[in-house]
Amino acid sequence: MSEQGERTPRVLLAVCGGIAAYKACEVLRGLQKAGCEVRVTMTADAVRFVGTVTFEALSGAPVATSLYDYPGSAIPHIDLAEWADAAVVVPATANVMAKMACGIADDCLTTTLLACACPVLVAPGMNVHMWQNPATQANAATLRGRGVSFVGPDTGRLACGDVGEGKLAGVDEIVSAALALLGPRDLVGLHVLVNAGPTHEAIDPVRYIANRSTGKMGYAIAEAAARRGAEVTLVSGPTSLVAPAGVRRVDVESAAQMHDATLAEFEAADVAICSAAVADYTPVAPADHKLKKSRERLDAIELTETADILADLCAVKGPRVVVGFAAETDDLLAHAREKLERKGADLIVANDVSRPESTFGADTNRVAFVTAGGVEQLETLPLPAVADALLSRIVPGGGPGTGPVGEKGLG
Fold first, then answer.
1. Which spans in 60-192 are helix H?
2. Fold agreement between 2-182 and 191-392
3. Is 25 among the catalytic positions?
4. What is the pLDDT of residues 239-296, one digit of tens each?
5. Class assignment of domain 191-392?
6. Are 371 and 401 in contact (CB under 8 A)?
7. CA-to-CA distance for 118 and 181, rounded, in angstroms?
């Protein structure tokens, strides 16, 4: 990720004493899932809400609550501040925000934040009246003026029963904002179109033909593209996943709907990444009612081929970039090369879905990037890392063996 190069990004999680402190556990897990190493510092009040043992178990590292007894360091506030690539304050209380604005460092957490030279993200969580208090608003303005980033607060029902602004932002939103501090903003000005997930081909109103795709890979690509500054449209088949923050999602169900929506959205896009597992066949004549096996035996289903989304995009792409996926169970690279040539894509992402680490639903993937210039094999990586590796091949000079196509594209 940008300045950190190939090193695992490091995030310092500063947990303050608010009722939403338990949400910091979910933020930690979200950052880890995105490939980050996380360490934690907590205020004494935060420990009253969630014990240090919880964060130590999740992070695999000691939690810094004191300047005097941190294992392995006599100056934990300096060592942690220099270790971190970004710091996230969650939930940021009015008290800690006031201390940050005034440069007060009277415990381990505030002393560490004062020593941080890395980007800092504040996620406020407090009562609506505390948030709207002029002193808190002035402190927030001061911090923003110094370059501190904010995410939230949201409006909703608060722990005290009040309704209003002050609710901690969603975990996914906080994680996305934190990752944005770590990564490059090299896709600003690009409109990236991603399709993802399976399609459901109706047999009748109840039954359908589908596949095992979960959409995880495509959603990871959409999230990474948005984090790196792109305008992102996600055309999604049926999935239980939540749209990433900052991504516009277009929901579809069938292959025909996926085809029409993807082609329509491509008109305004610079890049299309086709990660969806679109059905190759669909029933010719789906029933308009639930078929009853007692009187309407389904001995055979007449199928017809679905439209080829990748080929149709490539036929109209001009200088734009189109990336396809090849999910195979045998002869992976041969099939990927054939698909690249036959459909005219700029790159095919090949993955063997018979392998447990790269099958549908896995949180990792082992892919090869296949272009006219050759094959680049990646190791098994978390899905966010695969997404970033792919997107880095889209920007000029972004990766091994790559270069621009036209003014902005992939070689």
1. 76-83, 94-102, 108-115, 128-132, 134-145, 171-182
2. yes
3. no
4. 999 888 789 999 999 999 999 999 999 999 999 999 999 999 999 999 989 988 878 8
5. alpha beta
6. yes
7. 9
Each residue of 149-177: b (16+ CB within 10 Å) or e? bbbbbeeeebeeeeeebbbbbbbbbbbbb
Q: Which residue positions form the known binding site for CTP? A: 280, 290, 325, 339, 343
The Cβ-side half-sphere exposure at 153, using a 13 Å CA radius, reads 29
Q: Please count the other Cβ atoms lying within 10 Å of the Cβ belonging to residue 191.
A: 18
Question: Which DSSP helix (H) or strand (E) runs through 23?
Answer: helix 23-33
Q: For residues 11 and 33, what is the distance between their CA atoms, to the nearest angstrom?
A: 13
Tokens of 293: 């096996």
Q: Domain coordinates of the chain in residue numbers?
A: 2-182, 191-392
* 2-182 is classed CATH 3.40.50.1950: yes
SS3 171: helix
Q: Look at the pTM and tell me if it is higher than 0.85.
A: no
Annotated binding site: 280, 290, 325, 339, 343
Distance CA 360, CA 214 (A): 6
What's the rounded Cα separation, in Å, for the pair 59 and 74? 21
pLDDT tens profile 327-338: 888 888 999 999
Catalytic residue among 36, 102, 160, 314: 160
The CA radius of gyration of the chain, in Å to the nearest whole number, is 24
C-alpha separations of 5 from 10, 66, 410 in Å: 12, 32, 20
- Report the 10 Å Cβ neighbour count for 75: 13
Helix axes 23-33, 171-182, angle to 10 degrees: 50
